[in-house]
Each structure stands twice: as structure tokens, then as C-alpha cells.
Amino acid sequence: MQAIKEFFSPYMLKFIISFISADIAIMLSQAIIAWILYENLGIQYVTAIALIALLVNTIANKKLGFLLDRYPRVKLVMAANLIIAALTAIALISQSTWIFAILSVLTGLYFSCFYAARGAIAQLICINNPNQDFTKLNSMLVVTDKLGAILVGVIVASLFSWLGADALIVLALVILLISTALLAKFNSPTTKPTAQNAKAKPAGSFAWFFQHKIARLVACALVVTIVIMTGGTIDRVILYDVLKLTPDLIAYTSIAYNSAAIIGGVMVNWVKHETAAIYACIGLAFLMSCLLVISPSLSMFIASSALFGLLNSINRVLYDSVIMRHVANEQIGTFYSLLNSLNQGSQFLILIAINVFLWISSTTNELLTRWVIVFYPAIFLLIPAFLWLSGKYQKAKT
Questions:
Q1: Which PANTHER family does the record match to this protein (predicted)?
Q2: Is 90 exceeded by the pLDDT of residue 174?
Q3: CA angle 276-278-280, nearest 5°?
């Protein structure tokens, strides 16, 4: 109860609002930009842009940690906000599809910087305040993130057909500038000497990352994330390319995903067997993928998205909490950046695999059924690896 009271203190509210407003702005602009790119370029070019983005982010994330651990994190987020805002303004004025494409490429890198910086600051808040608990704080951060995402879904669903794409991007730009102004007035906590920080060793390479004591646990989380990303990618591509849905209809899928994620974010505080919860969610997601073969409809995609949202929030709260407990603050930006590099590299391989299966399916004119039947079992072969790596979440919580 004390942790909840601390969460609603003036300082914490300033922290949450400053960051969540930037999150909302970027999510809103990207929802519209994704539609613009699909409309103007088609799925082949959009796929190529996505592959370039993932490759760039895989490489750049390895260097991003250097900045996050050596320079003021709030100022880095402010600088990233201003760069995105400037590019967005140029894209709106020029109406250049390719500048929108550049924005799409940079978004993954922006979110890597954003979440790593926010995670490092949240870790300091917990270190400096014994009343705060890592799991509860991360749970509340996930809940506020998903509330923001639901707000974006509501805005797109209700205003897209009325205001149009440009007006919503302008709205996102205004919110981003407000966030930057709020961040300028936010005082980040400073590092207090701790045993964890005193033992910190030089970081920055994948060798260091995989030698860390929580590397196995993070590998477990990454496998789960790969499963989530695969399902989410299939959902998005089919919604755009097969069902030809507009952003306002797709927003309902986003609302379902994030509503379930809020439930997962709250529920994780009472889950006693975390690994079992992850297995249960994976099983449900796999069951839903089988149902999609039988009945590929918008309602089934919404239900599938909700399950992936539940799984994602539980997984994220747990591994974020473990990272904050066991990685020194002077290294946490690097740790998150290397993790994001692995994440983006996994997505790169997934997208290539998806397009290979798309090509195979298109030659037989059984696109949707063949794609889901062939691709999902291949991805779920990763679950034995997850079982093998499983150094349970509970062991790392102590």
C-alpha cells in the first residue's frame, strides 16, 4: 500500500506524465505513419523499410548504451524528442512518403532510448526510496503505458475518419513538444553508492552481457518476447494486407491488446509461480493461433491480440524487475541496449521468415491457412529452448 501512495506522490506523477506523454505522442504518430506507408508504398516496400529499420536498430543499439550510461538520460530523451519532432514537421510540410519512412526506421531506436532511460531512472527511484518495490513500480509503469496506448487507440478509432491523417500527426507533434517541456523541468534522481554499483565492471559487449548472472533468465524472457512478436507481426500484416482494414478499425485490436495488458500488469503482483503463468499464456496464444486457421476474422484477431497483450505485460514486468535488481545503474543503459539489439535482431529474422512463408503460401493460393499452420509450429519449437534455459523468475527475485 505504501508503494502505491509513493507512486502518486507529486514527484512520481511528474515522472510518469513527462514520459507517458512522449510515449503517447510517438505511438499516435506511428499508428498513422504505418497506414500512410501501406497506402502509398504497398506491403513490399513497407516490408523492406521494416527490415532496414530492424537491421539499423540491431547495430545502433549496441552503441546506444554508451550514451545512456555516460550522459544525462533525461536530456538524451529530450534530444530524441526534438529530432523526431523536427523530422515529423518536415514530413508534414513536404508530404514526403520517404521522410515518413525515415521516421518509421528511427522509431525503434527512439523507443530503445526511451525505455532504457526511463528504466534507469525508475531503478534509481527504487534504490533511493526503500518504500518502493521494483515489481510494483514496473507493474504500474506497464499499466500507465497501456492506458496511454488505449487512449491512442480511442483517438485513432474516433477521430481518424473525421480529422484525417495529417491532423492526428499534428496532434502527436504537439503532445511530443509538451512532453519535452515537462522533461526539461524534471529533476532526475542521482546515484547513491551501493554494493551493486561498487562491484560494477566495464560493460558494453555481448560477451559481458551473456556472462552476467541473469543472462539465462533474460534469454528466457527474450524467447517469450519472440513468440509475442511473431504473433503480433502476423496480426498486423494480415490486418493491413489481407483484411484491408483502416487505422480506425485496427485501433480496436490495439485497445483489446492493451486492455488485456493492463490486467496482466496488475495480476503479476499476485502471481506466485511466474514461469507457470508464462507457460499458460503461451499455451493460450498457441490455441488462439489454431482457432485463427479455422475462423480468420476481425473478432478472432482481437481475441488473439488480447492474449498476446496479457502475455507481454506479465513477461515485461518480470524481466524489467529482475534487471533492475541485478544490474548496476552505471551499466543498466548498456544492458537494456544490448537486450534491445538482440530483440531487434530477432525481429529481423522473424520478418525474413514470415516473408519466405508468404512467398511459399502465395504460390499455392492458400496464403492465410498455409502461413499460420506452417509458421506457428516452427516458432513454438523455441519453447523447448525456453524450458531448457528456465532459471525460474522466482530464483532471481531474491
A1: INTEGRAL MEMBRANE EFFLUX PROTEIN-RELATED (PTHR23513), MAJOR FACILITATOR SUPERFAMILY ASSOCIATED DOMAIN-CONTAINING PROTEIN (PTHR23513:SF6)
A2: yes
A3: 70
Q: How far lies 249's CA from each of 47, 164, 245, in Å? A: 21, 14, 6
HEC string of the chain equals: CHHHHHHCCHHHHHHHHHHHHHHHHHHHHHHHHHHHHHHHHHHHHHHHHHHHHHHHHHHHHHHHHHHHCCCCHHHHHHHHHHHHHHHHHHHHHHCCHHHHHHHHHHHHHHHHHHHHHHHHHHHHHHHHCCCCCHHHHHHHHHHHHHHHHHHHHHHHHHHHHHHCHHHHHHHHHHHHHHHHHHHHCCCCCCCCCCHHHHCCCCCCCHHHHHHCCCHHHHHHHHHHHHHHHHHHHHHHHHHHHCCCCCHHHHHHHHHHHHHHHHHHHHHCCCCCCHHHHHHHHHHHHHHHHHHHHHCCCHHHHHHHHHHHHHHHHHHHHHHHHHHHHHCCHHHHHHHHHHHHHHHHHHHHHHHHHHHHHHHHHHCCCCHHHHHHHHHHHHHHCCHHHHHHHCCCHHHHHC
CATH number for the domain that contains residue 77: 1.20.1250.20
Per-range mean pLDDT, top range of 3-7, 214-218, 232-236: 214-218
Q: Quote the domain boundaries for residue 372.
A: 2-397
Dihedral sign, Cα of residue 37, residue 39, residue 41, residue 43:
positive
pLDDT in tens, 81-131: 999 999 889 988 888 888 888 888 888 788 888 888 888 888 888 877 776
Confidence at residue 39, expressed as pLDDT on a 0 to 100 scale: 78
Confidence (pTM) = 0.77
Q: What is the tens place of the pLDDT at every residue in 238-259?
A: 665 556 666 666 677 777 778 8
Residue 271 has a pLDDT of 64
Judge whether residue 132 has pLDDT over 80. Answer: no
CA separation for the pair 12, 186 (Å, rounded): 10
Most confident of 24-33, 48-57, 247-256, 383-392: 24-33
CA distance 118 to 73: 8
Structural domain tally of the chain?
Answer: 1
Neighbours of 63 (CB within 10 A): 12
